[in-house]
Amino acid sequence: MKQKLVLLSASLIGLTLFGTVATAQLQRNVELKDGERHEHKMMEIPDGQPVPTVDLIVHRDALKGWNLELKVTNFAFAPEKVNQSSNFKEGHAHLYVNGKKITRLYGNWYYLDRLEPGRNEIKVSLNANGHETFMHRGKAIEDVAIVEVR
Question: How many other C-beta atoms are found inside a 10 Å radius of the C-beta of residue 134?
């Protein structure tokens, strides 16, 4: 059985970006699945700050598989800073296929060699260097594409 529980952090975290101070609220999304606990932190982009966006475009590869293109705004991929301090202007993406995390993405393109027959949901979320999922006004900054494989 799968349950989801969202816990709000009581503390506000001050972040310094490019000489300005902004406040971000951190949340934890706790997923309980068959007694196993997985935590996914979330970072809220404060109003007044540029909000990152992601647009996922799936291109059928001419030979086999799919080429995933991520068009992002107000966001920079920073693979050299993974697992370091988070801010809401840079990081990486997480790739999910049918609800299962496949990998981290450190750039705008990724080759996906195989999908299961039938309906497949491909999702990418933008994440901070510390792996927090970026949120704005309570919604994850992500995009989803559906691919039908016959």
Answer: 28
Let me know: does 149 contact 118? Beta carbons within 8 Å.
yes
146: nearest Cα among 123, 125, 121, 126:
121
- φ, ψ (nearest 5 deg) of residue 65: 85, -160
**C-alpha to C-alpha distances, 2 to 20, 31, 94, 132, nearest whole angstrom:** 41, 7, 21, 21
Find out whether 88 and 45 touch, Cβ atoms under 8 Å.
yes
pLDDT digits (tens, 9 = 90+) for 38-85: 456 999 999 999 999 999 999 999 999 999 999 999 999 999 999 999
63-98 in b/e form (b: 16+ CB < 10 A) is eeebebebebeebebbeebeeeebbbbbbbbbbbbe
Q: What pTM was estimated for this model as a whole?
A: 0.75
Residue with tokens 């979320």: 125
Q: Is 30 exposed, middle or buried (0-12, 13-18, 19+ CB in 10 A)?
A: middle
